[in-house]
Amino acid sequence: MFAVMSTSVNDPSHGFCRDCLAVQRGPAMRCTKCGSPRLMRHPELYALHIAHIDCDAFYAAVEKRDNPELKDKPVIIGGGKRGVVSTACYIARINGVRSAMPMFKALEACPQAVVISPNMEKYVRVGREVRSMMQALTPLVEPISIDEAFLDLAGTERLHGLPPALVLARFAQSVEKEIGITVSAGLSYCKFLAKVASDFRKPRGFSIIGEAEAVTFLAEQPVTLIWGVGKAFAATLESDGIRTIGQIQRMERGDLMRRYGTMGDRLYRLSRGQDTRRVEPDHDAKSVSAETTFDTDLASSADLVPILRALSEKVSTRLKKSGIAGRTVVLKLKTQDFKIRTRNRQLGDPTQLADRIFQTGMQLLAKETDGTKYRLLGIGVSDLTGVEKADPPDLIDVQSRKRALAEGAMDALRDKFGKTAVETGYTFGKGRNAHPREDVED
């Protein structure tokens, strides 16, 4: 069927139905074959090939798939009353729940919500299934997170017998049928606008932003639509009287760079829809980290150190499983008034050992335990490399070699008998703090 369709489908005056994929040759508001109102028409519909795919409310969608009783209920994925919202289904979002919102505020907005602790192992498994289906479309898949990715579908029409727009529509159908969740897709000529397009009309969205309309479309949008313009920078722009992208379009590149440095150049280019970045399938991880939000605020070293040790071991385990090491240790703290503190220290050599990550983290933490109460603690490593030069013998700290050998023996026991088969004195007998709930994994 698809091969037959491809002979005439590239006519830009012809749209298609997203439900049955039938070509639409007239101006009807509903599909001439199945009656669906979900029609796609656009002057550049068959000329664009850069796509962004985003799973709709991913964690919540997976939980609803696995428990049909949750289908019509508001669902929040997050950790406890003191945690944050990882994601929320669209019913909960209608009631004001948003990702990264403190859980107590989410429950104030939607007290009838069903709260489910994240099951990262399950989500990773489903995310890999979706990514595998993406890679069947094109080898140029650039993952952005567990549930979204860029795709470059240029040159795949001969393989699929369909232009990229129809390939995306068929892909969305397949994910919904085979995996049981929904996705939204954006199609454009560059990554920036493909990502913007995928955010429209969620869930089950499919939007297009063509090159001919880009500048006009962007002119009416707020500056926060541009990557890198967060709340703080948006406030800076607003103090300068800049609220819309159209205002940036009327400014000179040199003036923007004098005011805002390298960010000024980004503003100039993206405000005009200029984005030459390619879809890079071998996108390397930038960091490996673990963090947890506490049920009650903590201030003392006695409370924080066991958690730091447990998180360091989690980071170390991921590094070892991935065959990578990191040179910079990064400590993250969030105060009770939601202010974030990050501290980092570069090591002489890359590491993947929990002991080195923990010892460095303790040195960073010591300067922050000044009576301040914290609601979140995280530890991670960045500047990732291979393991070839990781953790060489330390001629000054002669005990480091013994600690490394002991850690290897502990890893072997845990692999055989489970994660809690052997513990250090830092975590043994510390209850929940010895195995903190994780809010974020990178």
Structural overview:
By secondary structure, the chain is of the alpha+beta class. The chain has helices spanning 2-5, 58-66, 90-94, 103-109, 120-135, 157-160, 164-178, 191-198, 214-219, 231-239, 245-249, 253-260, 262-271, 301-322, 354-366, 400-417, and strands at 15-17, 23-24, 39-40, 50-55, 75-78, 85-88, 114-116, 141-145, 148-152, 183-188, 206-208, 287-298, 324-335, 340-351, 374-386, 440-441. β8 and β9 form a beta hairpin. α12 (253-260) packs antiparallel against α13 and α14 runs antiparallel to α15 (354-366). The longest helix has 22 residues, at 301-322. The relative contact order is 0.09.
Question: Could you give a short description of this structure?
Answer:
The chain is an alpha+beta fold. It folds into 4 domains: 1-37, no CATH class; 42-212, Alpha-Beta Plaits (2-Layer Sandwich), CATH 3.30.70; 215-271, DNA polymerase, domain 1 (Orthogonal Bundle), CATH 1.10.150.20; 287-441, Dna Ligase, domain 1 (2-Layer Sandwich), CATH 3.30.1490. The protein has 16 helices and 16 strands.
Essential attributes:
alpha+beta, Alpha-Beta Plaits, DNA polymerase, domain 1, 5-stranded mixed β-sheet
Which residues form runs of ≥5 with pLDDT under 50?
Answer: 1-7, 438-442
- Using only C-alpha atoms, the radius of gyration works out to 25 Å
**SS elements, strand count:** 16
Could you say which overall geometry the principal axes of the C-alpha atoms support? globular
For the largest beta-sheet, the strand count, sense and barrel status come to: 5 strands, mixed
CATH-defined superfamily of the largest domain: Reverse transcriptase/Diguanylate cyclase domain
Q: Which structural class do you get from the secondary structure elements?
A: alpha+beta
CATH topology of the largest domain: Alpha-Beta Plaits
CATH level-two architecture of the largest domain: 2-Layer Sandwich
In total, the number of domains comes to 4
According to CATH, what is the class of the largest domain?
Answer: Alpha Beta
Helical content, roughly? 25-40%
Could you tell me the strand content as a percent range? Answer: 15-25%
Tally the helices: 16
Question: Which strand order do you get reading across the main beta sheet?
Answer: 8-9-4-10-11
Measured distance between first and last alpha carbons: 42 Å
Average per-residue pLDDT, rounded, comes to 87
